[in-house]
Automatic annotation (TrEMBL):
Protein name per the record: Phenylalanine--tRNA ligase, mitochondrial
Enzyme class: ligase
SMART domains linked: FDX-ACB
One cellular-component annotation, GO: mitochondrial matrix
Assembly and binders: Monomer.
Length: 433
């Protein structure tokens, strides 16, 4: 999951401004986002619903739970890492443009050209060269090229995904990077080094270390990384919580780990981290340092910390939700109180998949979100049927409708459902059953 969490572009002099506009492709074959024009092509799959989230910047809205959790993470880093003059070592970037290039989102992080995270079913493409960032790590290389050794990045990221109470196509991430030189790691021992003899751009190795790194350097970096992130978790959840480190794999770090916390009877992954692939640093012009990096999802931590039951609530304008966090001290213990329990409306949709066209489930999810908006609580595949004689495949989806701020009438839901059926047949070439 973190694998799809860390990637995209950046401009230190940010020229993006709030707002968006979109022109129907039948009129003009271009799309305007944040005062920039982009040509459409076969890769274009970003929807009006997704575009409407650009520039909302929940992480910058004072008194919003996303902003509060972000501030708690920042406070920990500012307090824990200071230079000799008492100033914070980490700099913060919270207004980086969400429109990035494929080079920034993938190539700069050594993502293979055939990797699944590049697919149209996973990302929101503006065109073949540009997309909405899939993770904040996409800004990593540009920031390092600018000369930064210690920095944090926070912003909204965009990813095509399933529909339920814990998944939303737009969410927020905090990423961090720390680079260390030989003198910083081993100030009192000239016999120790951070690189093995030979080609330090080599990426081969194991979960223990990359072949180009010395074991001593990796172990020191691992200790600092895990100690730092465990400190972040304790500053948020308190001292009394269960956690564990799990070995994992990312294309951009080696070795790599996930931090899991025990929440509501199950282990929940809250962040991913690791020792940065040395080739990423080398490509950024850095040949005398090693680094560690991490990425965490703000919504997931916020839902756990404040007992928020549905991820859609973060986008609510309802004062009954927002006022529970407004004017609260950043470390205040807040437990979300449901503003109301509105009833669900449940409708099913069944259709035959096209024989001569590619069908992608995330295309259907996007279509449902575009038409139903945040009235859609969950979409689940209820039945997958393969006809034994014709070989045709049929899908049946259950769509659960529930508004977060008012009661939905079944008549209203039926109109939305009919439109979903009509557009699914038109856009996805399915045959409604």
């Amino acid at each position: 999951m973190i694998l799809r969490k860390l990637l995209f572009t950046f401009h230190i002099r940010n020229n993006c401004t709030r707002g968006f506009s979109i022109v129907h492709p039948k009129v003009v074959q271009s799309i305007s986002l944040l005062n920039q024009n982009f040509p459409r092509d076969d890769y274009t799959n970003v929807t009006e619903k997704i575009i409407s989230h650009l520039g909302q910047n929940l992480h910058l809205q004072e008194g919003h739970p996303i902003n509060i959790v972000t501030q708690r993470v920042l406070n920990y880093f500012y307090a824990s890492f200071k230079n000799s003059r008492g100033n914070p070592q980490f700099s913060m970037y919270n207004n980086l443009c969400p429109i990035v290039t494929t080079a920034q989102n993938f190539d700069s992080l050594l993502i293979p050209t055939n990797h699944v995270s590049r697919s149209k079913s996973d990302c929101y493409y503006i065109n073949q060269q540009h997309l909405l960032r899939a993770h904040m790590t996409s800004h990593q290389s540009e920031l390092m090229k600018s000369g930064l050794d210690n920095f944090l990045m926070v912003g909204d990221v965009y990813r095509r995904d399933e529909i339920d109470r814990t998944h939303y196509p737009v969410f927020h991430q905090i990423d961090g990077v720390r680079l260390r030189s030989k003198n910083q790691l081993f100030p009192n021992d000239n016999d120790l080094d951070i690189f093995e003899l030979g080609d330090y751009t080599e990426n081969i190795g194991s979960q223990d270390k990359q072949a180009c790194h010395t074991l001593e350097a990796v172990k020191l970096m691992e200790f600092e990384l895990k100690s730092t992130l465990l400190g972040v978790a304790k500053s948020i959840f308190g001292e009394d919580f269960k956690y564990r480190w799990v070995d994992t794999y990312f294309p951009f770090t080696q070795p790599s780990w996930e931090l899991e916390v025990f929440y509501e009877g199950m282990w929940m992954e809250v962040l991913g981290c690791g020792i940065m692939k040395q080739a990423i640093l080398t490509n950024a012009g850095i040949t005398n340092k090693v680094g560690w990096a991490f990425g965490l999802g703000v919504e997931r931590i916020s839902m756990c910390l404040y007992k928020i039951p549905d991820i859609r609530l973060f986008w609510s304008k309802d004062s009954g939700f927002l006022n529970q966090f407004k004017n609260q001290e950043v470390n205040a213990k807040i437990t979300y109180r449901p503003i109301s329990q509105y009833p669900q409306c449940i409708n099913d949709i069944s259709f035959w998949l096209p024989n001569d066209k590619e069908y992608c489930e995330n295309d259907f999810y996007d279509l449902v979100r575009t038409i139903g908006g945040d009235r859609i609580e969950q979409v689940t595949l209820k039945d997958d049927f393969l006809h034994p004689k014709t070989g045709r495949r049929s899908h049946c989806y259950r769509i659960i409708y529930r508004h977060m701020e008012r009661t939905l009438k079944q008549e209203e839901v039926n109109l939305i459902h009919k439109k979903i059926e009509k557009e699914a047949a038109k856009q996805l070439f399915v045959n409604i059953r």
